[in-house]
Model the fold of this input.
Amino acid sequence: MRIVWKSGAFLLLIWLVFMLAYQGYIAKLKHDLKRNTGAFLQEIQSQNYTKAAELHRGSIDLASIRKLDEMDGFRLLSFDRVTAAYDDGCVCTGKAELTFAVKGEPFQVSVIVTSGTDYMPDQICAITPPDIKRRSIPELSQWNLAACGSDGI
Done:
């Protein structure tokens, strides 16, 4: 009977070590996505589009984002609460709060961030707040076309 208890305790210990290692790995991936997204948004905020181009996966149209900033005065003022989520076996999504300047006034939106296996931002899709009519802020629609690939959110 003693050998059964020892074997059971050993298997439980192996399982516990495996689970702790796996949770540590997931925490590292979440940290990577948050760090990379934060670095990308910092470069956009600083208007350093050349550096920002190195920090994303390539689907974000930085030329359009630059045009929004230079021509329309729609620029990223700040970002906050960048998070990453583990879902469906990967750390492929996250969220953040962005504050844009729209016609000189601050405007805060939540965004959804998607990434690939390199944990670099692939899409940053702004969610129109519930009290705002969709597409009533053309610059936000243009942001979604450039950073998200569509204005469907």
Q: What stands out?
A: The chain is about 45% helix and 30% strand. Residues 2-147 form a domain with the Nuclear Transport Factor 2; Chain: A, fold (CATH 3.10.450). The first strand starts at residue 75 and ends at 87.
